[in-house]
Automatic annotation (TrEMBL):
It comes from Streptomyces spectabilis. The lineage of its organism: Bacteria, Bacillati, Actinomycetota, Actinomycetes, Kitasatosporales. Keywords: DNA-binding, Transcription, Transcription regulation. This is AcrR family transcriptional regulator. InterPro entries: Homeodomain-like_sf, HTH-type_TetR-like_transc_reg, HTH_TetR. The keyword Transcription applies.
Amino acid sequence: MTVTPGRRERKKAATRQKIADTALRLFLERGYDEVGIREVAAEADVAVTTLFAHFASKEALVFEQDHPFEQRLALAVTRRTPDQPLVPALRREVQDLVRHCSGEGAAPVHRMIDTSPALRAYEESMRLRHAEALATALIADPDVPRSATACRAIARFVIDAYALARDASDPDAALDEAFHMIQAAWDAA
């Protein structure tokens, strides 16, 4: 059963999205390093404290889907049915993220990330955190009879598959190839 969020939750989500959209527009127009937090807050018509209530840092404004993606990876493990294989469930989540991050208008965002040391560092720390969250879900799953080391390794491979596919000329083919290897590694573990 799907629960419809209440008015307060919808308003919070709308404010968060407005801040993220405003920040991205300003960053792309003027450059990431040229735009300050106060400018983003003013342009989004929110207080700086409101901005920080939704985003922990300036870098987080660029990666606004960070936490939902991390949660979706863990849920791909914990909410799958007993007859649903693990690796294909993870592949679907990664494919959704690749499609989201490769959609129309994504190239300028990737160029901005690639040219900013702060954004590259944040993206790398985000990937490590996602891999650890996924590994934690795998380790905790009683239907996953693998060692903690195997779970951590597979989690990192899954997260790296995203980066490889995102940068590939044919993302689906890259995912097919990467997840074929991930499946083989998982089976061998």
